[in-house]
Every structure is written in C-alpha cells, then in structure tokens.
Amino acid sequence: MDPTPSSVSPFASVSGALGDYIPRGGTPAPAAGATASTEEAEGGEQILGVVSLDRDLRISGSNLDAAPFAGVTAAPGAAFADLLPPGDAPMVVKRLRRVLETGEAHVARVQRLRRDNATEMVVSMSILPAAAPQHGLTVSLIAMAKRLHLYASATAIGTSLDIGETAQSLAQSLLAWGEVAAVNLDYAVWTGEAVTDQAQERIRLRRAALVPDRAWPEGYLTPGDNLPREASRLLAGAVMRDDVPQAVVLRDRAAIERVLDDPQLMRALVPGERPVSVACIPLVVEGPEGMPRPIVLGVTEVWRRPDNLFRDSELLDLQELVAKTARHVDLARQHQREHAQVLALQRRLLPRAGSDTIEVASVYEPTTPDSAGVGGDWVNSFPLPGDRTALVVGDVVGHGLGAAAAMGQLSMEARALLSAGLGPGEVLERLDETVTLLDDTDAGLAAGYSALGSTCCIAVYDPVDHRVSISNAGHLPPVLVHPDGSAETVAAQPHPALGAEFVVREPFDVHEFAAPPGSLLVLYTDGLVEDPAVSIDLGISRLTDVVREVHPWDDLQQAARRVVARLAPKEPLRDDVTLLLARMAGRRGRDTATWHLPARADTAARARALAAPLLRGWHAGEQARDSMLLVISELVTNAVRFGTGPVTVRLVHAGSRMTCEVGDTGNGRPRPHHGDPLDDTGRGLRVVHKLTTRWGVRWTDTGKAVWAELEA
After folding, report:
1. Residue 159 contacts residue 331 (beta carbons within 8 Å)
2. Higher pLDDT among residues 636 and 69, named by residue
3. Concatenated DSSP letters of 303-366
4. Number of other CB atoms surrounding residue 646 within 10 Å
5. Whole-number pLDDT of residue 227
6. Chain CA centroid to CA 515, Å
7. Rounded to whole angstroms, how far apart are CA atoms 478 and 629?
8. Nearest by Cα to 359 from 114, 172, 560
9. Of 93-102, 177-186, 244-253, 442-451, which range is least confident?
10. Distance (Å, rounded) from C-alpha 370 to C-alpha 15?
C-alpha cells in the first residue's frame, strides 16, 4: 500500500483532497503523441501535457507545449525520474512500476517537476496504462488550475496541529503560484503566547518554512532563522497599510532594492541574484472582542520571474488560501500554548534526582499529540523527614489540560500531606475526598476527563529499617525485585479507586515489607502493561520478567528506557505510558542508631549518654554535638512528660546533616507556646526551633515521632 497522506508529506495530503475533488473514471488522457488539450485556466493558459513512457520508464514521446511547462524538457530516451526532484523520484518510480504490473491507473497525485533552471512547478499527475497496441505508460500532467489547487490545498492544510508542519504545507501549496515560497511567523506563534495588538516596531518574525529544498546562497534566511528587525518591520508595515491587511507585490528586482535599501537585507530575503518579483501576503486573524484591527501572525512570500506578473485573480486566490491557513496557524498556536503549559506542569511532577539512599529513574510517554503531550498519569519521588523517601504513581482518567490540571492538584496535595507527616493510608483518604470535590464542579466530564475513578499508589521507603510502607487506591500492584534476582508483585489489601462513593467505604490498608539494599521497586501505570489481546495479569507478568533482567550495575535511566521499549505498545499508543524504577541502597549501619527506652525521669540523661560517643564518631563539630545533645534532651523530656508508653530515639548521619527522631505512643501534637515568662510549657520546643534548621511531627501507627535536623 502507498503510505497514507499523514505519513508522507504535505503533497500527499493535497493529493488526497484532489482525489476527492476530481471524479474517478473521467475523460481518458490522450495517447502518446496526441495533441495536448487546450483546456483553459485563468488568463487563457493551457494546463495539460502528456508524457509517454516505455516499460523501462524512459520517455518515448511528450507534448509539453503548454506555457506553464516552459523549461521542463522531456527528451526522448531520458529517464522519467530525471524530471523529478531527487527526494520524490523513488516513490514515483514505485507507483509507475505498480501501474505497469497491475494495469490499474493512479489518478490525480500532486507532484513537483524540475525545470531546466533548477526551479520547480507543481502538477497533478495521473498514471495510466498506454492504450493498445502500445506497451508502457501514459503520464498526464495538469499544471495545477489555480482554483482546483486552492481547493485541494485548503482541504489538506491544517490536518496537523504542529506549527512547523502547517507552515510547510502552506509553503508547498504556494509553489503553484511561484518558484520559491517562504512562510515567516511571529515569535508569539512559536511560543504559543497570546497574540495581541502589535505595534509595527514590535513584530518579530522567524522563518518557518522555505520551498523548494535546495542549497541557498550564503546569508539567505532558511527555516529556523530569525528575520532582522528591519526586515520584520518592512514586511509587517507592508501588510498593515491603513490598518487593513493587504497583499503587496514588488514587480522586479529594482523595486525590491528600493524598498529594502540594504545589501544585507537583499541577501537575507531575496533568493539569488537573478531577476525576481515577489508577492507578500499576510497571515492574519480577527482580533479579540474590543480590538478593531486584525492580528498579524506572520507573512508569506511567493517569488517568481518578473516576466510572469501576478494577476489580480492570482492575488485573490493567494489571499484566500493564506486566509484559510491563518486560522489553522492560530489553532496550532493555541495547541502549542496548551502543550507548553502541560509540559511545564509535567516537568514539575517528574521525579527529581535520588539521594544516596535511593536511586530513581522514570519514563513518561504521552499517548497522542492530541493530548497536548501530557495526560493524567504521573510519577513522583521526593524526600521526607527522617531520611525517608516517598514514591507516588497515579492516573487520572482522560488526557489534555483538564486531566493534567487534576493530576497536578492530586500530586501536589499528596506531596504536601506526606511532607506534613501523614502516612500513605491517611494521604489516600484525603485524596479520596479531594477527588469527590473536584467532580462536584461538573467541569471534568465536560472537559473530557473525570477525577472520579483516579488511581494512586503511595510507597514510603525507610533506608534505616530497610522497609517500605505502601497503600494502594485501585492502582496496579508494584513489582519488587529482590537482590537475588527474584521478583514478585506487592499486593496490598484491594481498595477501590479514589472517589468511588458507590462502594462500601473501607480504610485504606497500609502494607509493609522488607526492601534490603539492592532491591528494585517498580511503579507504573496501565498503559505499560495493557493489551486488548491478553489479560492484564499477563501484562504484569511480562513486566516482572523484564525488570528481573535489570542488573545492580546497570544505569537505571537507560534500564527504564529499555523496559518501556520492550513492553510499551507500538504506535499509536492507546494510553499514556509511565514507569518509575527505584533502586534501594539504604543507610549504612554506622551512620544510624536506634534505642528503645522506658518513659522515666532519667531517660533524657540516658539518651544523651548513648548519643555522645556516637556523635564524636561521626566527627561532628563541638557546637553541633552540644546542640544535638540538647535537642535530644528536650525531645525525650517532652515525650516522657506529655506522651505515653516507651520512647524510641533514632539518630541518622547523612553527609553534613544530622537528624534526631523521638517517638512515643501519644497522639497529641507538640506546639511551641509563647506564654507567661513563669510558664515553662512548650519552652523545650522553642529551644529546638532555634537550634535546628527544621523540625516537625510524623504520625505513626502507634503514635507520633518528633524529628529535628541540624548541620553537622
């Protein structure tokens, strides 16, 4: 099969539109050697020519007498491929041979032909088997009747929301009116910014497309180059006369030199040294309400020989085509703006670099360009107090900006709650309430997404105890690869997705398991393992087999990409693909210490005695040791005085940071007080606040833990 229009080029897209416009089975093309038809185009120009080919695809005869074919030499015996641009020849030759083999005509394909002077023209090409008794092919070439080309181009342009592709499609279509075509777009279009009323001196243009593709003189502007400010002002001013966008024609090189009045601008804007004329047509859209003037999105240029003057009818056709394209360019700009917004959001949510206790790597692949490059999937990892690390994966139903916004809200709320000391199960309970509130606005379904049914899995890694606590709200189970290479799924007690009010509400279960150094935890979304042809269990089993092959010495980011490459469905993706790999390293035993002490009056002194030699072994400075011992004393004293049950003291040394954590079985929240000078309540926490860089409370299954950090 021939490639589809979307997979080939703008010419293929135009051809598809021509195929709809030109009736199949129309009047057969003349046989080889016949006199060309005198079908008339605007201005009385003949537009039909014929080339006969033998079975070796060499020219056996031709009739290209029509004026538009001037400069196209079809010499007998020459290969037909010599008439084509080099990049087009392989595909055209393939089509020619197919017609020879099958006898089925290939009708109305937009194609470029090369003139002797290296310029190109656009034709509609049909390939038919030669009439008996001849053997070979008859190639009918229609020099594009402008109205026909206008219809085909307007139909094909705008099939992509990519700004560059839209500009390229327009430039290719403009070749029907000239020999060189260029499209220049305002910076705001490229960045997706809101296009507002522009003063002429503030318009800045960048070349978006230039055809045909050839070696251009040094200094000439090619795609990606910024137009000099003087050129931008000239072009913008030319199309904004009397506040009305108009096409401007410079009839010869002398007129162009008078307008540009600068040799450098001539080199930048004029394609070559030969005589030329140019038509500049603005890309404009109506301004927003309250803005009387239209907005300039850019300027197109059509260049051709000065002896072939632009007629008024041609300029009207050019303006019509460019006007229709301007709407598509503006849609592409809006898409670019949304794309930039959601990508900025996605980048904020992607995992940051890991620490010395855990290494993380992630891969995110959006489903389709229509989703603006992001959907409702997310993964995140971030440090928590007490040397712990949170790993979060979630999925909001839908794609695009609405789903991304809901995803961002849930992700940020999860991070805030975990950082505030809540456990995974408690965080999911809060997210469950948030999801219900999000859908109360009735905006989700109208925007193509719904927060109801969102899934989320939260894991918290403790590098000191080498354990992971996990809670799951309707998400697929993580996979744990043990240091010996064995692997298993980590299935917590099943729980419905977030916002599932139609089921009996149950607390979110928290499952805890060991993760010794060298373990690999795998979090993912369903797009990685779902396949309509197989069960989801088989997809998870395949993932388990693949991640078992990740070796401890492998680069984790490269390993993540390999996993996605092996498992992700081939294009087009049915759903976003998200993967997070977390390799556990743990904290060395000599950098941590944990003591379980009874809640007695002398417990603070006992804790200081145990900590003092450890701090000296960590080579902490004298001031840091004294401060840490005082912090330990105050926290333990508060735990004995206001808490219940035994007291747990944990110290962690991580680089230049030391952390003290004191836990008890009480559930009251410690707060520093600013009361009467004779009231010593809360005075210990004020001391802790002054000595440490930060401190807080973490809630546990048995009570609470107050933690504090300071520099070693």
Report:
1. no
2. 636
3. EE-TTSPPPHHHHHHHHHHHHHHHHHHHHHHHHHHHHHHHHHHHHHHS-----SSEEEEEEEE-
4. 16
5. 85
6. 34
7. 40
8. 560
9. 442-451
10. 24
**Scanning the structure block, which residue is given the tokens 């307008």?**
259
Sequence-distant (6+) residues with CB within 8 A of 29 are 50, 126, 128, 138, 140
Q: What residues pair up with 588 in beta bridges, in sequence order?
A: none
**Is residue 94 classed exposed, middle or buried when 0-12, 13-18 and 19+ CB atoms within 10 A define those classes?**
exposed
> What are the DSSP E strand ranges found in 205-305?
205-211, 248-250, 277-285, 295-304
Residue 320 has which token pair?
Answer: 């019509």
Q: Which of 95-109, 176-190, 473-487 is the most confident on average? A: 473-487
Q: What is the pLDDT of residues 287-309, one digit of tens each?
A: 666 555 667 788 889 998 888 88
Note whether 592 and 464 are within 8 A (CB): yes
Q: Who has greater pLDDT, 24 or 453?
A: 453
Tokens of 601: 């009056």
The string over 457-492, giving b where at least 16 C-beta atoms fall within 10 Å of a residue's C-beta and e elsewhere, is: bbbbbbbbbbebbbbbbbbbbbbbbeeeeebeebeb
Q: Is the pLDDT of residue 440 over 60?
A: no
Question: What number of other Cβ atoms are within 10 A of residue 91's Cβ?
Answer: 18
* Secondary structure class of 369 (helix, strand, coil): helix
Distance (Å, rounded) from C-alpha 419 to C-alpha 357? 18
Residue with tokens 């949304």: 338
- 1, pLDDT greater than 50: no
Residue 104 identity (one-letter amino acid): E
Q: What are phi and psi of 111, to 5 degrees?
A: -145, 155
Amino acid at 12: A
Q: Does the pLDDT at position 610 exceed 50?
A: yes
**How far is it, in rounded angstroms, from Cα 706 to Cα 175?**
73
Range of weakest confidence among 8-22, 351-365, 410-424? 8-22
99 vs 403, more confident = 99
The β-bridge relationship of strands 205-211 and 106-114 is: unpaired
CA distance readout (Å), 554 to 357, 478, 581: 17, 20, 12
DSSP helix/strand/coil, 92: helix
**In this structure, what token pair is assigned to residue 73?**
């030499």
Query: What is the residue type of 455?
Result: T
CB 525 within 8 A of CB 377: yes
pTM summary value: 0.59
| pLDDT score recorded for residue 428 | 93
Q: Cα–Cα distance between 711 and 256 in angstroms, integer?
A: 70
Amino acid letter, residue 302? V
* Distance from the Cα of residue 189 to its chain's centroid: 17
**Do 360 and 374 form a contact (C-beta atoms < 8 A)?**
no
Q: What are phi and psi of 127, to 5 degrees?
A: -115, 120
Token pair of 260, please? Answer: 């540009």
- Residue 676: pLDDT over 80: no
Distances (CA, A) of 509 to 423, 499, 506: 11, 16, 9
Cα separation, 371 vs 170, whole angstroms: 24
Separation between Cα atoms, residue 18 and residue 41, nearest integer Å: 17
Residues 234-246 pLDDT 10s: 665 555 545 555 7
Residues paired with 524 in a beta bridge: 579
Residue whose pair of structure tokens reads 């330990």 in the numeric block: 632
Task: Supply the DSSP string of 47-73, one letter for each residue.
Answer: -EEEEEE-TTSBEEEEE--SGGGTT--
